[in-house]
């Protein structure tokens, strides 16, 4: 299982020849390949497995909970890069059942540069439903409490999606601690929204009561009722149906009476979700089927959970605010496309998954003073606001040069290259600058390439080729060097694709493999409408482990004057 030219298909084919379930994980524990028998045992298609953390997705206790990371031998073996084996472990299948397995994990090499771990597993019996903790059981032991808190920290801090974090919180406490969970959130304008009312049935499956969810009345400052106090961040409180039987002191009390009547809860505890700076909301746990009432020891456990949940939610909120600001900035930085009667044109921008949602990848298209159309795709090194600022400066300078001077693309980029020396936010950059001219029904392309991946031209007949001519070094390296131009014709019905390297680069394959894959996918989509062509090309060609921005500009020659 070595060789620098080993492709994903070859690796998968080799795994398929093994007589047990098998998957490969990279050094971070992310699944990079799986065989068909493994898919069958796990009840999951490869698309559900590839690119996912194997531990978070699969490793479970007999009760169906995520195995705490420090206690997971399978995960530790992968991270340590050593051979290990075991039995009596549980993997979660796609339908939620648990598969008892024996397993062996051993380091291997996909190619001389790429290390991985091969995990072999086989079933020790048929899939079973999780053994959920018995409802109405005894209070948690100290070990169980510490395990639950560790799970809470691990699960909630491993996502920056608020809704996903809240769903994980519900899965942690229902039905382990209660058979009802209610989450109320406070918005930026102090408006209260009942995010979830969740209930565990006899099989442990959590179901949501949509009719009890939604907007809530404002929280009165003077109310001493339990939920009002929790939403003001005052303290935890116990409650029962009798708590809300008297005259209501607010609209919140009316909703709480409705909640108790609809759920049949006989005992509940309400805990603030409080960050360092603000109150985020409240978590309510209730018991209807469980006979035991909540006690002070239950409250201490729930308060510990709420503190950890609040920390994770605050991080997720800050991240989403940052992302919203960044995405707004990126939208304003990227231009609207010009109208050309003889061409259709579309663009796509996908930010780096783990970055600040802005970066140096960019596209541009604008009409020149002589009626030609300028097309640009470029990449400034970086995934932050400095890269975005440098990108904006570079784009504006290129526009200024191109609009003021009717010169070949090479001359425009040469001037731009000299100017880059004075742009503090740009250290290195690549770009392709194309001049598209329409005369007498023919479309001529002239371009220069400054260290960028080559444009891809796909004819209507599905013949795809890269425009490798006109290639020079990237910007910021040798500003006094002359740059070449290249020319070709864009046939009627053909599509020109300009893109950034995030569409083809991957840690698990070579650049040549990425280029070959992009060409094959583009050729197969030659007859698709341009919008569908672009969406499908991004979905098919972008590597699963891609961690870079992607900008794409696609132009199709429709014919005409």
Description of the molecule:
This protein is an alpha+beta fold. The chain has helices spanning 8-16, 36-42, 46-49, 54-58, 73-80, 142-157, 162-173, 226-231, 251-263, 296-333, 385-404, 409-420, 511-524, 530-541, and strands at residues 21-25, 31-34, 59-60, 84-92, 98-111, 114-123, 180-186, 192-200, 206-208, 214-215, 237-239, 267-274, 279-287, 343-350, 361-367, 373-380, 429-439, 442-450, 456-458, 464-466, 471-472, 486-489, 495-499, 550-557. Strands 7, 8, 9, 10, 11, 12 and 13 form a seven-stranded antiparallel β-sheet that branches. A six-stranded antiparallel β-sheet has the order 2-1-6-5-4-3. Strand 4 (84-92) and strand 5 form a beta hairpin. It is globular, with a radius of gyration of 29 Å. The model is unreliable at 1-6 and 132-137 (pLDDT under 50).
Brief descriptors of the model:
alpha+beta; 561 residues; seven-stranded antiparallel sheet
Give a quick precis of the structure.
The protein has 561 residues and is of the alpha+beta class. The protein has helices spanning 8-16, 36-42, 46-49, 54-58, 73-80, 142-157, 162-173, 226-231, 251-263, 296-333, 385-404, 409-420, 511-524, 530-541, and strands spanning 21-25, 31-34, 59-60, 84-92, 98-111, 114-123, 180-186, 192-200, 206-208, 214-215, 237-239, 267-274, 279-287, 343-350, 361-367, 373-380, 429-439, 442-450, 456-458, 464-466, 471-472, 486-489, 495-499, 550-557.
């Amino acid at each position: 299982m070595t060789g620098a030219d080993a492709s994903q298909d070859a690796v998968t084919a080799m795994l398929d020849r093994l007589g047990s379930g098998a998957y490969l994980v990279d050094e971070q524990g992310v699944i990079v390949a799986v065989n068909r028998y493994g898919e069958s045992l796990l009840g999951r298609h490869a698309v559900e497995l590839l690119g996912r953390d194997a531990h978070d997705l699969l490793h479970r206790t007999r009760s169906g909970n995520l195995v705490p990371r420090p206690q997971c031998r399978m995960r530790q073996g992968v991270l340590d890069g050593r051979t290990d084996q075991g039995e009596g472990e549980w993997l979660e299948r796609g339908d939620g059942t648990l598969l008892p397995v024996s397993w062996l994990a051993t380091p291997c090499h996909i190619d001389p540069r790429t290390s991985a771990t091969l995990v072999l597993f086989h079933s020790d019996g048929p899939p079973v439903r999780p053994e959920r903790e018995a409802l109405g059981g005894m209070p948690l032991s100290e070990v169980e409490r510490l395990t639950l808190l560790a799970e809470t920290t691990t699960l909630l801090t491993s996502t920056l999606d608020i809704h996903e974090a809240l769903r994980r919180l519900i899965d942690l406490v229902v039905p382990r601690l209660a058979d009802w969970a209610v989450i109320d959130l406070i918005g930026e304008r102090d408006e209260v929204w009942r995010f979830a009312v969740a209930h565990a049935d006899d099989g442990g499956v959590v179901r949501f009561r949509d009719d009890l969810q939604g907007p809530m009345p404002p929280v009165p400052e003077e109310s001493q009722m339990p939920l009002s106090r929790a939403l003001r961040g005052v303290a935890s409180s116990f409650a029962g149906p009798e708590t809300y039987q008297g005259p209501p002191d607010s609209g919140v009390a009316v909703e709480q009476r409705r909640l108790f009547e609809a759920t049949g809860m006989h005992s509940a505890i309400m805990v603030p979700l409080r960050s360092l700076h603000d109150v985020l909301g409240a978590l309510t746990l209730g018991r209807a089927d469980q006979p035991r009432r909540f006690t002070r020891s239950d409250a201490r456990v729930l308060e510990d959970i709420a503190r950890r949940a609040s920390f994770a939610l605050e991080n997720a909120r800050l991240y989403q605010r940052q992302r919203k600001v960044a995405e707004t900035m990126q939208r304003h930085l990227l231009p609207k496309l010009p109208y050309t009667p003889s061409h259709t044109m579309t663009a796509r921008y996908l930010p780096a998954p783990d970055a600040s949602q802005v970066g140096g990848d960019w596209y541009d298209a604008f009409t020149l003073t002589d009626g030609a159309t300028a097309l640009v795709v470029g990449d400034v090194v970086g995934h932050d606001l400095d890269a975005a600022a440098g990108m904006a400066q570079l784009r504006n300078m290129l526009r200024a040069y191109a609009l003021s001077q009717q010169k070949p693309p090479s001359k425009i980029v040469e001037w731009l290259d000299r100017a880059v020396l004075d742009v503090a936010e740009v250290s290195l950059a690549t770009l392709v600058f194309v001049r598209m001219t329409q005369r007498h029904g023919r479309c001529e392309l002239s371009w220069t390439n400054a260290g960028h991946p080559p444009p891809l031209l796909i004819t209507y007949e599905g013949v795809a080729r890269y425009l490798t001519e006109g290639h020079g070094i990237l910007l910021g390296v040798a500003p006094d060097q002359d740059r070449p131009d290249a020319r070709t014709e864009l046939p009627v019905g053909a599509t020109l694709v300009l893109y950034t390297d995030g569409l083809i680069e991957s840690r698990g394959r070579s650049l040549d493999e990425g280029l070959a894959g992009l060409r094959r996918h583009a050729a197969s989509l030659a007859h698709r409408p341009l919008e569908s062509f672009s969406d499908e090309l991004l979905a098919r060609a972008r590597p699963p482990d891609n961690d870079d921005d992607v900008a794409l500009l696609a132009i199709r020659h429709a014919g005409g004057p």
